[in-house]
Amino acid sequence: MKKYLGIAAAIAIVIVMAGGAFAAGSTTSAVGASGTVLGVCSASNDGVINFGAALDAVANAAGVPFASVVVTPPTINCTPGATYVVTAVGLNGGVDTGAGYQLRKGVTTDYIAYTFSYTSPITGAGFGSGTGIGGTGAGHLAITPSIAANALDAAPAGTYSDTVTLTINY
Question: pTM of the prediction?
Fold first, then answer.
């Protein structure tokens, strides 16, 4: 029996030593992580241009300068750091920045010409609170409309309107 105990002990020692041999050494592996942020924009809260409720040819003979126009810019947010090109098209005429835009009285053929200017390209400022592009200053879509001198001379009384569609290309 002592013989068997001696053999069992020897086998146990060999197994323990062999098990330790398997634990020697190590290896490593790396896992890479990456992602791409796309340059995108979103627009909400359409803007408004208010030339005033009391336009008349006498009081506004010199035109309606931008300083007396109330502009509420649209809310536009874009991925920060990227540059975006803006284009514009007026419902009643006018393309991009400058002249050619027209306010129209209802469904008549009565128009008042005006200019619609804006900054382009614009630089994204992000999507958080207070990071919209509408407004003034660097990276903002500053809209500057005006009505030229004598543009109201032949305009019949009534309410005139236009819609300018802005496209932010990214």
Answer: 0.74
